[in-house]
Amino acid sequence: xxxxxxxxxxxxxxxxxxxxxxxxxxxxxxxxxxxxxxxxxxxxxxxxxxxxxxxxxxxxxxxxxxxxxxxxxxxxxxxxxxxxxxxxxxxxxxxxxxxxxxxxxxxxxxxxxxxxxxxxxxxxxxxxxxxxxxxxxxxxxxxxxxxxxxxxxx
Length: 154
What we know:
7 strands; 6% helix; 154 residues; seven-stranded mixed beta sheet; 1 helix; globular; mainly beta
């Protein structure tokens, strides 16, 4: 049914996500606080997501498994301490993400270079009106004036 979602919270022994191999479209998918998570491979069928949050998974090194994601409305990737690569989201570099419609935030991942986070945005055909790609690992893109268009305050 529309409006349904999946949340995977605080599973300290979970290494990989199993059972979601047939997921093509996610209304809401939250993967957060899974200390041992190292693989998103079972999400490889997902092409569209309305809301996807990937946060505080300290052992996750990359986003392999998301290479077929083409369109996202709201994406937040934050607090994933071991995350070093988002290449599988970068269109033309192993990923398929070409459309962001509301917000994409890749913030606070201390092993991920700011320039790598910014490449996700740069390679989108349709860019979201609100985005943030900084406060990751400092590099030449850190502090650039165009790395964040924050959501308006109510």
